[in-house]
Amino acid sequence: MKITKVESKLFKYTSYVESDDEGHGHPAKEPHQVKQSLITIETDEGHKGHAFGANPQIVENVIAPILLDENPFYREKLWEKMMHMQRIVTAIDERILSSIDLALWDLIGVIMNQPLNNILGLYREKVPAYASTMCGDTIKGGLSTPEDYGKFAEWCVKEKGYRAVKLHGWMPPIEGAPDPKKDIMACAAVREAVGEDIPLMLDSYHYYSRLESLWIGRELEKLNFHWFEEPMDESSMSSYIWLSEQLDIPIIGPETMTGKISTRAEWIKNNAVDILRGGTGDLGGLTPLMKVAHLAESYNMAMEVHGGKEGNLHALGSIRIPGEFYERGLLHPHVDYEKPPEYLHEIIDPMDDEGFIHMPKGVGLGLKINHDYINDNLISEDIDIKNARRQS
Ligand code: MG
User: Fold this and answer.
1) 375 CA to middle of ligand 1, Å?
2) What is the mean pLDDT of the chain?
3) I need a labelling partner for 364 at 20 to 30 A (CA). Which of 105, 119, 196, 258 fits?
Protein backbone atom coordinates (compact mmCIF):
# COMPACT_ATOMS: atom_id res chain seq x y z
CA MET A 1 0.00 0.00 0.00
CA LYS A 2 1.27 3.49 -0.76
CA ILE A 3 0.22 7.13 -0.45
CA THR A 4 -0.83 8.49 -3.83
CA LYS A 5 -2.35 11.87 -3.00
CA VAL A 6 -1.71 14.61 -0.41
CA GLU A 7 -3.77 17.77 -0.63
CA SER A 8 -5.04 20.65 1.44
CA LYS A 9 -8.20 22.57 0.55
CA LEU A 10 -8.78 26.06 1.88
CA PHE A 11 -12.35 27.01 2.79
CA LYS A 12 -14.23 29.61 4.80
CA TYR A 13 -16.66 29.24 7.66
CA THR A 14 -18.42 31.41 10.21
CA SER A 15 -16.58 32.09 13.47
CA TYR A 16 -18.06 33.60 16.62
CA VAL A 17 -14.68 34.18 18.25
CA GLU A 18 -11.99 36.73 17.42
CA SER A 19 -8.45 37.21 18.64
CA ASP A 20 -7.13 40.35 20.28
CA ASP A 21 -3.76 41.86 19.32
CA GLU A 22 -1.89 39.35 21.47
CA GLY A 23 -3.77 36.33 20.11
CA HIS A 24 -6.23 35.66 22.95
CA GLY A 25 -9.70 34.64 21.83
CA HIS A 26 -12.80 36.58 22.89
CA PRO A 27 -16.42 36.56 21.67
CA ALA A 28 -16.60 38.36 18.33
CA LYS A 29 -18.69 41.53 18.07
CA GLU A 30 -20.25 40.05 14.94
CA PRO A 31 -20.05 36.56 13.41
CA HIS A 32 -17.41 36.70 10.67
CA GLN A 33 -15.76 34.52 8.05
CA VAL A 34 -12.41 32.84 8.74
CA LYS A 35 -10.13 30.45 6.83
CA GLN A 36 -9.66 26.78 7.62
CA SER A 37 -8.05 23.99 5.62
CA LEU A 38 -8.83 20.33 5.21
CA ILE A 39 -5.93 17.95 4.63
CA THR A 40 -6.58 14.72 2.73
CA ILE A 41 -4.08 11.87 2.46
CA GLU A 42 -5.15 9.09 0.11
CA THR A 43 -3.76 5.63 -0.72
CA ASP A 44 -3.69 3.58 -3.91
CA GLU A 45 -6.42 1.41 -2.36
CA GLY A 46 -8.79 4.38 -2.00
CA HIS A 47 -8.53 4.97 1.76
CA LYS A 48 -8.64 8.63 2.84
CA GLY A 49 -7.41 10.22 6.05
CA HIS A 50 -8.36 13.78 7.03
CA ALA A 51 -7.40 16.45 9.52
CA PHE A 52 -7.74 20.22 9.73
CA GLY A 53 -5.34 23.09 9.76
CA ALA A 54 -2.23 23.14 7.58
CA ASN A 55 -1.29 25.79 5.06
CA PRO A 56 -1.95 24.42 1.52
CA GLN A 57 1.33 25.78 0.14
CA ILE A 58 3.38 23.96 2.76
CA VAL A 59 1.39 20.78 2.24
CA GLU A 60 1.84 20.92 -1.51
CA ASN A 61 5.48 22.03 -1.66
CA VAL A 62 7.08 20.45 1.41
CA ILE A 63 4.88 17.72 2.91
CA ALA A 64 3.56 16.00 -0.23
CA PRO A 65 7.06 15.17 -1.58
CA ILE A 66 7.88 13.49 1.75
CA LEU A 67 4.71 11.39 1.91
CA LEU A 68 3.99 10.44 -1.71
CA ASP A 69 4.75 6.80 -2.62
CA GLU A 70 5.41 5.92 1.04
CA ASN A 71 3.64 3.19 3.00
CA PRO A 72 1.25 4.97 5.44
CA PHE A 73 2.00 2.37 8.11
CA TYR A 74 5.52 3.86 8.35
CA ARG A 75 4.02 6.72 10.36
CA GLU A 76 6.94 6.90 12.83
CA LYS A 77 9.45 7.17 10.03
CA LEU A 78 7.32 9.74 8.18
CA TRP A 79 6.94 11.83 11.36
CA GLU A 80 10.73 11.77 11.82
CA LYS A 81 11.29 12.88 8.23
CA MET A 82 8.83 15.79 8.59
CA MET A 83 10.33 16.72 11.97
CA HIS A 84 13.82 16.83 10.48
CA MET A 85 12.48 19.05 7.69
CA GLN A 86 11.48 21.64 10.35
CA ARG A 87 15.18 22.49 10.71
CA ILE A 88 15.31 23.67 7.10
CA VAL A 89 11.73 24.85 6.49
CA THR A 90 10.93 26.79 9.65
CA ALA A 91 7.41 27.50 8.37
CA ILE A 92 6.53 23.91 9.40
CA ASP A 93 5.59 24.74 12.97
CA GLU A 94 4.39 22.23 15.56
CA ARG A 95 0.74 22.86 14.68
CA ILE A 96 1.27 22.10 11.00
CA LEU A 97 3.31 19.01 11.87
CA SER A 98 0.48 17.99 14.19
CA SER A 99 -2.18 18.41 11.51
CA ILE A 100 -0.30 16.17 9.08
CA ASP A 101 0.44 13.60 11.78
CA LEU A 102 -3.25 13.51 12.72
CA ALA A 103 -4.27 13.03 9.08
CA LEU A 104 -1.84 10.07 8.90
CA TRP A 105 -3.30 8.60 12.11
CA ASP A 106 -6.82 9.11 10.74
CA LEU A 107 -5.77 7.25 7.59
CA ILE A 108 -4.45 4.32 9.64
CA GLY A 109 -7.77 4.21 11.53
CA VAL A 110 -9.70 4.19 8.25
CA ILE A 111 -7.52 1.41 6.81
CA MET A 112 -7.95 -0.68 9.97
CA ASN A 113 -11.64 0.30 10.32
CA GLN A 114 -11.13 1.18 14.00
CA PRO A 115 -11.29 4.31 16.17
CA LEU A 116 -7.83 5.54 17.12
CA ASN A 117 -8.41 4.97 20.83
CA ASN A 118 -8.75 1.24 20.10
CA ILE A 119 -5.55 1.26 18.06
CA LEU A 120 -3.60 3.17 20.73
CA GLY A 121 -4.77 0.76 23.43
CA LEU A 122 -7.59 1.78 25.72
CA TYR A 123 -7.15 2.50 29.39
CA ARG A 124 -10.55 4.22 29.85
CA GLU A 125 -13.69 4.93 27.87
CA LYS A 126 -14.40 8.37 29.31
CA VAL A 127 -12.45 11.28 30.77
CA PRO A 128 -13.70 14.01 33.13
CA ALA A 129 -13.64 17.47 31.56
CA TYR A 130 -12.68 20.78 33.08
CA ALA A 131 -14.25 24.02 31.95
CA SER A 132 -11.37 26.01 30.47
CA THR A 133 -12.56 29.60 30.47
CA MET A 134 -11.43 32.35 28.11
CA CYS A 135 -9.07 35.12 29.16
CA GLY A 136 -10.66 38.05 30.96
CA ASP A 137 -12.14 40.86 28.89
CA THR A 138 -14.07 44.13 29.21
CA ILE A 139 -17.39 42.76 27.95
CA LYS A 140 -20.45 43.54 30.03
CA GLY A 141 -21.88 40.29 31.34
CA GLY A 142 -18.78 38.52 29.98
CA LEU A 143 -15.59 37.90 31.94
CA SER A 144 -14.75 41.46 32.94
CA THR A 145 -14.86 41.22 36.75
CA PRO A 146 -14.03 38.64 39.44
CA GLU A 147 -17.79 38.36 40.04
CA ASP A 148 -18.31 37.50 36.34
CA TYR A 149 -15.84 34.63 36.69
CA GLY A 150 -17.60 33.45 39.84
CA LYS A 151 -21.00 33.50 38.17
CA PHE A 152 -19.78 31.73 35.06
CA ALA A 153 -17.90 29.05 37.03
CA GLU A 154 -21.03 28.39 39.09
CA TRP A 155 -23.04 27.92 35.87
CA CYS A 156 -20.37 25.58 34.45
CA VAL A 157 -20.42 23.38 37.56
CA LYS A 158 -24.05 23.52 38.65
CA GLU A 159 -25.86 23.82 35.32
CA LYS A 160 -23.52 22.05 32.90
CA GLY A 161 -21.95 19.46 35.19
CA TYR A 162 -18.24 20.28 34.77
CA ARG A 163 -16.14 18.58 37.43
CA ALA A 164 -13.39 21.23 37.50
CA VAL A 165 -12.76 24.78 36.26
CA LYS A 166 -9.67 26.58 34.96
CA LEU A 167 -9.36 30.35 34.78
CA HIS A 168 -7.20 32.35 32.45
CA GLY A 169 -6.66 35.73 34.06
CA TRP A 170 -6.67 39.12 32.37
CA MET A 171 -3.84 39.60 29.93
CA PRO A 172 -2.64 42.50 27.76
CA PRO A 173 -3.97 44.26 25.73
CA ILE A 174 -6.89 44.32 28.23
CA GLU A 175 -6.59 47.57 30.17
CA GLY A 176 -5.09 47.17 33.64
CA ALA A 177 -3.66 43.73 32.87
CA PRO A 178 -1.62 41.98 34.02
CA ASP A 179 -2.51 42.36 37.69
CA PRO A 180 -1.72 39.55 40.17
CA LYS A 181 -4.20 40.94 42.70
CA LYS A 182 -7.07 40.96 40.21
CA ASP A 183 -6.21 37.40 39.11
CA ILE A 184 -6.42 36.27 42.73
CA MET A 185 -9.69 38.15 43.28
CA ALA A 186 -11.18 36.16 40.39
CA CYS A 187 -9.80 32.89 41.80
CA ALA A 188 -11.31 33.71 45.22
CA ALA A 189 -14.68 34.56 43.63
CA VAL A 190 -14.69 31.26 41.75
CA ARG A 191 -13.74 29.27 44.84
CA GLU A 192 -16.56 30.89 46.76
CA ALA A 193 -19.06 30.27 43.95
CA VAL A 194 -18.33 26.56 43.42
CA GLY A 195 -17.50 25.47 46.98
CA GLU A 196 -14.51 23.63 48.43
CA ASP A 197 -14.73 20.33 46.56
CA ILE A 198 -14.32 21.37 42.92
CA PRO A 199 -10.73 21.28 41.60
CA LEU A 200 -9.72 24.73 40.32
CA MET A 201 -6.72 25.76 38.27
CA LEU A 202 -5.16 29.05 37.18
CA ASP A 203 -3.42 29.62 33.86
CA SER A 204 -2.21 33.17 34.40
CA TYR A 205 -0.39 35.81 32.39
CA HIS A 206 2.71 34.04 31.11
CA TYR A 207 5.29 36.73 31.78
CA TYR A 208 5.04 37.42 35.51
CA SER A 209 8.29 37.81 37.44
CA ARG A 210 9.52 35.21 39.92
CA LEU A 211 8.29 37.22 42.91
CA GLU A 212 4.88 37.92 41.38
CA SER A 213 4.52 34.22 40.58
CA LEU A 214 5.53 33.22 44.10
CA TRP A 215 2.95 35.59 45.58
CA ILE A 216 0.18 34.29 43.29
CA GLY A 217 1.15 30.68 44.03
CA ARG A 218 0.96 31.23 47.79
CA GLU A 219 -2.47 32.84 47.44
CA LEU A 220 -3.64 29.89 45.31
CA GLU A 221 -2.48 27.51 48.03
CA LYS A 222 -4.75 29.33 50.50
CA LEU A 223 -7.64 28.87 48.05
CA ASN A 224 -6.84 25.15 47.70
CA PHE A 225 -6.17 25.34 43.95
CA HIS A 226 -5.31 22.16 42.07
CA TRP A 227 -2.48 23.44 39.85
CA PHE A 228 -0.74 26.65 38.76
CA GLU A 229 0.03 26.94 35.05
CA GLU A 230 2.61 28.91 33.06
CA PRO A 231 2.99 32.07 35.18
CA MET A 232 6.45 32.85 33.74
CA ASP A 233 8.29 32.75 30.43
CA GLU A 234 9.08 29.07 29.92
CA SER A 235 12.40 29.95 28.26
CA SER A 236 13.82 30.11 31.78
CA MET A 237 13.66 26.59 33.20
CA SER A 238 15.67 27.87 36.19
CA SER A 239 12.79 30.15 37.15
CA TYR A 240 10.44 27.16 37.25
CA ILE A 241 12.92 25.15 39.37
CA TRP A 242 13.09 28.16 41.73
CA LEU A 243 9.29 28.46 41.91
CA SER A 244 8.54 24.73 42.29
CA GLU A 245 11.00 24.46 45.18
CA GLN A 246 9.12 27.07 47.17
CA LEU A 247 5.50 26.22 46.51
CA ASP A 248 3.36 23.28 47.58
CA ILE A 249 0.75 23.78 44.85
CA PRO A 250 1.68 21.66 41.81
CA ILE A 251 3.31 23.63 38.98
CA ILE A 252 2.40 22.33 35.54
CA GLY A 253 4.41 22.68 32.31
CA PRO A 254 6.07 23.17 29.94
CA GLU A 255 3.35 24.04 27.47
CA THR A 256 4.62 26.46 24.86
CA MET A 257 8.38 25.85 25.14
CA THR A 258 9.87 24.40 21.96
CA GLY A 259 11.82 21.17 21.91
CA LYS A 260 9.04 18.58 22.03
CA ILE A 261 9.94 15.41 23.93
CA SER A 262 13.51 16.44 24.79
CA THR A 263 12.40 19.62 26.55
CA ARG A 264 9.93 17.65 28.68
CA ALA A 265 12.68 15.18 29.58
CA GLU A 266 14.96 18.02 30.71
CA TRP A 267 12.21 19.61 32.81
CA ILE A 268 11.56 16.29 34.56
CA LYS A 269 15.27 15.70 35.14
CA ASN A 270 15.67 19.17 36.65
CA ASN A 271 12.55 19.00 38.86
CA ALA A 272 11.20 22.13 37.19
CA VAL A 273 7.56 21.02 37.40
CA ASP A 274 5.31 18.66 39.35
CA ILE A 275 2.93 17.79 36.49
CA LEU A 276 4.06 17.47 32.87
CA ARG A 277 2.20 19.22 30.05
CA GLY A 278 1.86 18.84 26.33
CA GLY A 279 -0.72 18.54 23.58
CA THR A 280 -0.77 17.63 19.92
CA GLY A 281 -0.43 21.27 18.86
CA ASP A 282 2.58 21.96 21.15
CA LEU A 283 4.49 18.80 20.32
CA GLY A 284 3.79 18.18 16.64
CA GLY A 285 1.07 15.56 16.76
CA LEU A 286 -0.33 12.50 18.44
CA THR A 287 2.91 10.58 17.72
CA PRO A 288 5.06 12.74 20.06
CA LEU A 289 2.20 13.22 22.54
CA MET A 290 2.14 9.49 23.26
CA LYS A 291 5.93 9.51 23.71
CA VAL A 292 5.66 12.37 26.23
CA ALA A 293 2.85 10.59 28.09
CA HIS A 294 5.01 7.47 28.40
CA LEU A 295 7.99 9.56 29.45
CA ALA A 296 5.92 11.06 32.29
CA GLU A 297 4.65 7.61 33.23
CA SER A 298 8.18 6.26 33.55
CA TYR A 299 8.94 8.98 36.11
CA ASN A 300 5.67 8.45 38.04
CA MET A 301 4.70 11.96 37.03
CA ALA A 302 1.18 13.06 36.15
CA MET A 303 0.74 14.43 32.66
CA GLU A 304 -2.07 16.79 31.72
CA VAL A 305 -2.91 17.06 28.06
CA HIS A 306 -3.01 20.64 26.78
CA GLY A 307 -6.09 21.58 24.81
CA GLY A 308 -9.04 19.63 23.56
CA LYS A 309 -10.12 18.32 20.17
CA GLU A 310 -9.77 14.95 18.51
CA GLY A 311 -6.07 14.09 18.78
CA ASN A 312 -5.82 14.99 22.46
CA LEU A 313 -9.04 13.16 23.25
CA HIS A 314 -7.92 9.86 21.69
CA ALA A 315 -4.60 10.14 23.55
CA LEU A 316 -6.43 10.60 26.85
CA GLY A 317 -8.24 7.31 26.33
CA SER A 318 -4.98 5.43 26.52
CA ILE A 319 -2.89 7.40 29.03
CA ARG A 320 -2.52 5.22 32.11
CA ILE A 321 -0.91 7.73 34.43
CA PRO A 322 -3.14 10.11 36.34
CA GLY A 323 -3.61 12.62 33.56
CA GLU A 324 -6.89 13.58 35.07
CA PHE A 325 -8.74 15.88 32.74
CA TYR A 326 -9.85 16.74 29.23
CA GLU A 327 -9.49 20.50 28.63
CA ARG A 328 -12.84 21.64 27.21
CA GLY A 329 -13.06 25.12 25.82
CA LEU A 330 -12.32 27.80 25.58
CA LEU A 331 -15.61 28.76 27.21
CA HIS A 332 -17.34 32.11 27.63
CA PRO A 333 -20.86 33.14 28.67
CA HIS A 334 -21.47 34.62 25.21
CA VAL A 335 -20.13 31.74 23.07
CA ASP A 336 -22.05 28.52 22.34
CA TYR A 337 -19.37 25.83 22.56
CA GLU A 338 -21.87 23.04 21.83
CA LYS A 339 -22.66 24.30 18.34
CA PRO A 340 -20.46 22.62 15.70
CA PRO A 341 -18.72 24.78 13.10
CA GLU A 342 -20.37 24.54 9.68
CA TYR A 343 -17.72 22.12 8.40
CA LEU A 344 -18.58 19.46 11.01
CA HIS A 345 -21.89 17.66 11.50
CA GLU A 346 -21.12 17.16 15.22
CA ILE A 347 -18.58 18.37 17.74
CA ILE A 348 -16.00 15.75 18.69
CA ASP A 349 -16.37 16.20 22.44
CA PRO A 350 -20.01 16.25 23.62
CA MET A 351 -20.12 16.08 27.42
CA ASP A 352 -22.52 13.88 29.39
CA ASP A 353 -24.43 15.34 32.34
CA GLU A 354 -21.90 13.96 34.80
CA GLY A 355 -19.10 15.95 33.18
CA PHE A 356 -17.39 13.19 31.18
CA ILE A 357 -16.24 13.10 27.55
CA HIS A 358 -16.51 9.67 25.93
CA MET A 359 -14.03 8.21 23.48
CA PRO A 360 -15.16 8.81 19.88
CA LYS A 361 -16.22 5.54 18.25
CA GLY A 362 -16.14 6.54 14.57
CA VAL A 363 -13.19 5.19 12.55
CA GLY A 364 -9.88 7.05 12.76
CA LEU A 365 -10.19 10.39 14.50
CA GLY A 366 -13.97 10.04 14.38
CA LEU A 367 -14.56 13.43 12.78
CA LYS A 368 -17.99 13.90 11.22
CA ILE A 369 -16.87 16.12 8.37
CA ASN A 370 -19.40 17.99 6.23
CA HIS A 371 -17.63 17.58 2.87
CA ASP A 372 -20.51 19.21 0.98
CA TYR A 373 -20.17 22.37 3.07
CA ILE A 374 -16.40 22.45 2.51
CA ASN A 375 -16.69 21.92 -1.26
CA ASP A 376 -19.30 24.69 -1.49
CA ASN A 377 -17.09 27.15 0.40
CA LEU A 378 -13.63 26.72 -1.12
CA ILE A 379 -11.53 29.88 -1.35
CA SER A 380 -8.18 30.83 -2.82
CA GLU A 381 -5.07 31.66 -0.76
CA ASP A 382 -5.13 35.37 -1.46
CA ILE A 383 -8.58 36.13 -0.07
CA ASP A 384 -8.27 38.66 2.72
CA ILE A 385 -9.81 36.98 5.76
CA LYS A 386 -8.12 35.75 8.90
CA ASN A 387 -6.99 32.25 9.68
CA ALA A 388 -9.21 30.31 12.04
CA ARG A 389 -8.18 30.68 15.63
CA ARG A 390 -6.69 27.46 16.90
CA GLN A 391 -7.15 25.92 20.30
CA SER A 392 -4.65 27.19 22.87
MG1 MG B 1 -2.16 26.98 29.17
Assistant:
1) 34
2) 96
3) 258
